[in-house]
Amino acid sequence: MVESVEVLIIGGGLVGLTLAKGLEKQNVSYRLLDDRLSALPPSTRALALSKTSLAILRYLDIWQHLKALVTPISSIDVSCEGAIGRTFLDNPEHDFLGVVANLNDLQKVLKNGINQHEHLIEARFTSYCPEKKWVYAEVDGQQRVFNANIVVAADGANSSVRGFCHLPVEHAIEQQAILSVLQFNQPHKGLAHERFTAHGPLALLPWQQDQMVLVYCVNDERAKHIQQEGSAYLQAYISSQLGSSGRHLVSCGELNRYPLRQVFMPRQACQNVLFLGNAAHTLHPVAGQGFNLSLRDVAVFLEVIQQFGVGPESFPMYLTQRVKDQRLTKHLTYFLAEGFNRISPHARGLGLSMVEGSPLFKNIISFYAQGLGYPLPRWVYQQMEYLYD
Fold it and tell me: Phi-psi region for residue 335, left (φ > 0), alpha (ψ -120 to 50) or beta?
């Protein structure tokens, strides 16, 4: 028996669950397939969420349950090793620029926010038949077949669906991310750090009152060296990078690392299949744009199918609206991860000093970092007005 549904989502991560919540809000029938629905991500994975992302989550009735669990980012200190100049990004009119969420918390809130839990199916995607537009999945050892107006592949950077569609990807940046929770002797007060070191970008995100999450992106050799030397070595190195900031780094927690690569699909649709999230574009974490970009994709996709119907004929409108945001964000991320360090320290410092002395530059950076330079549904802007309530 073939089960018919308007939208079939393959992948039950953050993007798949967010889309499912949005489809429920629009009364669109769906099923979500994932063979790891009960699995939880590591508790130390931190996500920086922009105000645009928070507006989307508020529209989906998620932000109301998440806001007590996040840490606000009040300002960002951007600096370069070997350069005198630096810049501070903040928003004097409001309390925060964005927030830091625990990926684990966000996953739980999203899953709990789904009203139709019977539509979340613990299933392993096995194959896709383009001719019949059928999706085959294994559920409890038995095969089930689904036919959908739209299939959304949100199954990650190593998308199995992409393999069946024989679609190409562009690869760039092969690095390792070192993750750890740092303990300081004083509260961070919402200050985040983005430090461009000789070995790669180093980010410190506010976590608990006197804790920060480290995301340090380096090549394989450097990552192995840090793990061999251990937490004491990393603690001394980070302290040297922070300088005399008035806060003392007390300890580094357990060191974890995971591989990084930037993946981009130049063609993100095939017949009735649309790719979203990391399946469509996996970004380097240097600018914290990966999930934020995906949330903007989901928002526009929801708006497009509401206006043009739940079918592949809506894909061209969606792709047209998203191409500039995706490509600029991809190029900006690549530049910060790879190209910025190729510029001389003096030029980098001069550039940061120019940004620091120009409110106009700061506003432009903030505007595009929020993804506001491109078409977004009107309701996104409406929801942003209520984030500080």
Answer: alpha
Task: Find all residues with CB under 8 Å of 339, minimum gap 6, and list them.
Answer: none
Q: In sequence order, what are the residues at sequence separation of 6 or more whose Cβ sits closer than 8 angstroms to the Cβ of residue 218?
A: 175, 176, 178, 199, 200, 226
Residue matched to tokens 């669109």:
28
- For 327, residues 6+ apart whose C-beta sits below 8 A from its C-beta are none
The pLDDT tens digits of the residues spanning 142-199 come to 999 999 999 999 999 999 999 899 999 988 777 899 999 999 999 999 999 999 998 9
b (16+ CB within 10 A) / e for 282-300: bbbbbbbbbbbbbbbbbbb
**Gap between the terminal Cα atoms of the chain:** 50
- Could you report the per-residue pLDDT of 294-304, keeping only the tens digit for each? 999 999 999 99
DSSP H stretches of helix in the chain:
14-25, 51-59, 63-66, 103-113, 160-165, 220-229, 231-242, 290-308, 315-334, 345-356, 359-369, 378-384
The residue type of 4 is S
Q: State pTM to two decimals.
A: 0.94
For the domain covering 2-171+261-384, report its CATH number: 3.50.50.60
Parse the chain into domains and list their residue ranges: 2-171+261-384
On the 0-12 / 13-18 / 19+ scale of CB atoms within 10 A, 131 is exposed
**Across residues 371-384, what is the average pLDDT?**
89
Provide CB contacts within 8 A for 16, sequence distance 6+: 9, 10, 32, 34, 152, 154, 155, 277
242, 171 contact by CB (below 8 A): no
| Cα–Cα distances in angstroms (integers) from residue 330 to residues 8, 172, 288, 319, in the given order | 27, 10, 12, 15
Is the predicted pLDDT of residue 65 greater than 90, yes or no? yes
**pLDDT for the residue 386:** 84
